[in-house]
Amino acid sequence: MKKIIINTVFFALLGVFLLGQVAAANAQEPRNILSISPFIFNLRLSPGETYERTMTVQNILNVPLPIKLSVEDFLVQDEDGGYNFTKNDSSSVISWITLDETDFILEPKEKQEIRITIQIPTKIPFGGYQGIIFVQPILPNQEQYSTLLNAKVGALVLANIGSQAYQIHPARILTFDMPFVLFSKENIPLTFRVQNNSLYHFSAKPLLSFDPLFGEIQSYPLLEQFLFPGKVRRWTESMNLEDLRPGVYLTKLQISVGNGVQISSQKYMVYVPKWLGISLGAIIMMVILVITIMKKPKQITKFLRILVRGR
Fold it and tell me: From which domain of life does this come (predicted)?
């Protein structure tokens, strides 16, 4: 599965949609009880228009499964992609979306398509909006299903209203933190924060490159993530740079934010292996000692005589 799908599922659901465990007589193993497709609707819409989409829900169990669907607002927080859900009826997304069915029963292994109608008001500010369509199984009140009674999954709805005008600076890199001197190629901490300055959602695709004074550039694609309007998103990585050689590098962070626009930041980095660092340290100490002896030979001779004779 592509990286963007994995990231989208994690970001949209973020651990809320745990499907739990089914208790068995001899073993307890996590089991999915239903699946949905797609996990995300990334839509570009226009005021006054009506759109239709479909979502597929499948029962993975070998028993009939009652299903309940609902639409909730998806309120995004800054930094770590935190979120809140609300059933406030005044929410734009909730009032736009109509589901052809909200309560039904899926037979064992059965799939069902849900028709989604999205009606956009004629007067609405341009920008990005988001909501979520929850799919919740209603399980029998039996012990083997007790941990799954409140389990639910959801499909994220991202709606960009109006034409997404080109912006010279739709986003900016707020911070780009990485050690200046590296003594190891493993578990290198990397943190950077990006702010979406636009009114719309977009997907950010980071690429980290190491440009040495001599040799070829090494590039590492990083996790692709959605940025919500006006929000800040933080990436935290632990990198293994197996192909890195000792030397000085210009480290470049380039992020594609759509419409052919890239934002970037750069800084210098030095990679010194531990063995080389110890050797250089010893050489530097020797050089300092030689220079000191050459500048103050009498004082050094007196100091050595005291050490040898004890007076």
Answer: Bacteria
